[in-house]
Write a structure and sequence with these properties.
It is a single chain. The chain is mainly alpha-helical and 383 residues long. It has one domain (9-380): Growth Hormone, Chain: A (Up-down Bundle). The chain has helices at 9-27, 29-40, 44-72, 77-89, 98-126, 131-159, 169-183, 200-234, 239-267, 269-278, 280-289, 295-306, 310-320, 325-364, 367-377. It starts with 8 loop residues before the first helix and ends in a 6-residue tail after the last helix.
Length: 383
């Protein structure tokens, strides 16, 4: 936190726009899984590995880019990331084999990974004395981007072809240019703040807690994004309906992230985190057991509540290590989502044995893990 610096709205909004555009491209992938599964004759684990590869690369490589960002203090990665992601993830239709598809997904994931540590770090810096507000806006941009990608993927393919997605390169190139013109001269550095944790042990405890909470949330979200379209296709639903369901899932998560700062001011950060992991559990269960389209309401409401704590967890992670803000951001975001991506493939193997319905039931029970963890460590944290 920078208590003496003002909230830089233009820079925060530009970085949020960059987050939105960058995350459109990974948002395209999950709705296309049923079509890719049929066109390439893939098994369920192979199909799950497509989503898993994207999440692993785009998340775990954030650690590498976060380290390089803190080492050099340069911000060129934040501008090049959207361009690289756009070039590969909007051209999946040109991959004529399974392993070429994995290559495109992996290279596109590297572009997505390059943007996030620097983007989050710069938002933390440019937000001045309003870190929760700035991070809430930034998180919302990413969720909206994934939502837009999920919404438009199916209709574009059904109206044209999967190769028609290549036109979506244009927004990524444009936002990359704008970020390069506006951000490339900035320096990544952040001063210690007065309310940082008091000692190294406190830093470590707060940080590990935030990472584990982020991992739990990420696993739930990545797993639902991967298996809900496959479950709906199994029930005979159209590809576009799966994309629409993911759109509501992601848009609700974005609204939840946007309102996280507001709820933290009203209820306190620990209470918001507790609620965000307790209330979604029955709502996710209601979605799975619902037989009609009204179940989407339960799914969206659960995603909204789950993500109210997302900006709080990122900001608290940055607060623990203000001198290594990019690396801290990459751990809370990248390591968390990367771990979730690793777990998607074995979850796909499990789904082969127990079926998609029971797999979704298992995923829906996971929020309780975050609730118990938060409940156990409330008194140990410097909120």
């Amino acid at each position: 936190m920078h208590p003496h610096l003002p909230f830089n709205r233009p820079k925060v909004l530009l970085l949020t726009a960059g987050h939105l555009v960058t995350d459109i491209y990974p948002g395209l992938v999950s709705p296309l899984l049923p079509a890719l599964q049929i066109s390439l004759g893939l098994s369920l684990p192979e199909t799950a590995f497509i989503a898993s590869s994207l999440v692993i690369i785009s998340s775990l490589f954030q650690l590498v880019f976060g380290y390089l960002s803190d080492l050099t203090r340069k911000t060129l990665l934040v501008a090049s990331g959207p361009v690289i992601g756009a070039m590969f993830l909007s051209n999946l239709g040109f991959a004529d084999s399974y392993w070429m598809l994995i290559l495109f997904v992996s290279l596109g994931g590297l572009g997505v990974a390059a943007f996030h540590p620097q983007g989050a770090a710069l938002v933390g810096i440019k937000s001045g004395d309003r870190p929760f507000t700035g991070m809430s806006i930034f998180v919302t941009g990413g969720a909206l981007g994934v939502s837009v990608g999920a919404l438009i993927a199916g209709p574009i393919v059904e109206l044209g072809s999967i190769r028609t997605l290549s036109y979506l390169m244009i927004p990524g190139i444009c936002i990359g240019f704008l970020l390069w013109k506006s951000i490339s001269r900035d320096i990544l550095i952040r001063h210690h703040q007065k309310n940082a944790s008091r000692n190294g042990k406190a830093h470590w405890v707060v940080f590990v807690i935030m990472v584990i909470l982020a991992m739990t949330r990420a696993y739930i979200f990545v797993s639902l994004s991967t298996f809900v379209p496959l479950y709906l296709a199994e029930k005979g639903r159209a590809l576009a309906f799966g994309g629409l369901t993911l759109f509501f899932l992601h848009i609700a998560a974005g609204i939840g992230g946007f309102s996280g700062g507001f709820w933290a001011e009203k209820l306190g950060a620990p209470n918001v985190i507790l609620i965000s992991f307790l209330v979604p559990l029955p709502l996710f269960m209601l979605y799975v057991f619902a037989e009609s389209s009204v179940g989407i309401v339960f799914l969206a409401l659960a995603a909204y509540i789950l993500f109210t704590s997302a900006p709080l967890v990122i900001s608290l992670g940055q607060r623990a290590y203000p001198k290594n803000i990019s690396m801290a951001s990459s751990m809370v975001m990248g390591l968390a989502w990367g771990s979730a991506g690793v777990l998607v493939t074995p979850t796909g193997v499990l789904a082969d044995y127990i079926g998609l319905f029971h797999t979704l039931i298992s995923i829906s029970s996971m929020p309780f893990v975050g609730f118990l963890l938060t409940l156990l460590i409330l008194r140990k944290m410097d909120w």
